[in-house]
Write a structure and sequence with these properties.
Strand order of the largest sheet: 3-4-5
Number of domains: 2
Number of strands: 5
CATH topology of the largest domain: Tetrahydropterin Synthase, Chain A
Strand content: 15-25%
CATH class of the largest domain: Alpha Beta
Amino acid sequence: MKRILPLLKVVGKGLLALAAFSTMLINSTMAYIMFAPDDLPKPFYLAYSTPPGAAAEAATLVDYAGGGGGGEFAPAPLAEATPAIPEPGDGFMFSTGTKIVNLADPGGRRYLKTTIVLEFAPPASLQADAAEAPKGEGEGDGPVDPSTLFNDELNARLPVINDALTTLLSSKTFEEIYTIEGKENLRQEILDTISERLPEYHVIYVYFTEFVVQ
């Protein structure tokens, strides 16, 4: 037993020395990987993630000194905000005229007579188009009324609008449209149908200025 104890002490010291050497080697390796230039050979390279919002914040800085060091920085101009959709009553009104259609009731004896006015959001490019539009004889030197150009555009698409309205109205029965709830459902269906047929325009609201079911 007396011979084994010295041997165990030697082995213990050897293990401690090996652990210390391993720790020093690991620390040295990590320091080399972290701080040595990336053009030197490494067992692996660290990849750093950008904190949320840091890239966007950095992208908004503009170097007034032309990219030189120590230049002043200022926020980059913000992107233009998307124009808000007007509320009902603030858009351009377009009357589709009076429609008289037979309803889908058995026998076809019931009909609907209605006048529908569609309200559209003004297109963003309309003001510029109005300013560049040629003036007619006898007109002033001021810009053309944007609503006039808009009505001209929609009049060119009136056959599409009338076809969509006639098809939709004639598919309804008396029971579907004679109540207040039925009229509101029809109003929404008209809005969705016109928006689908004319996706380049935004329908704000649908008005019934006449609505007779018989």
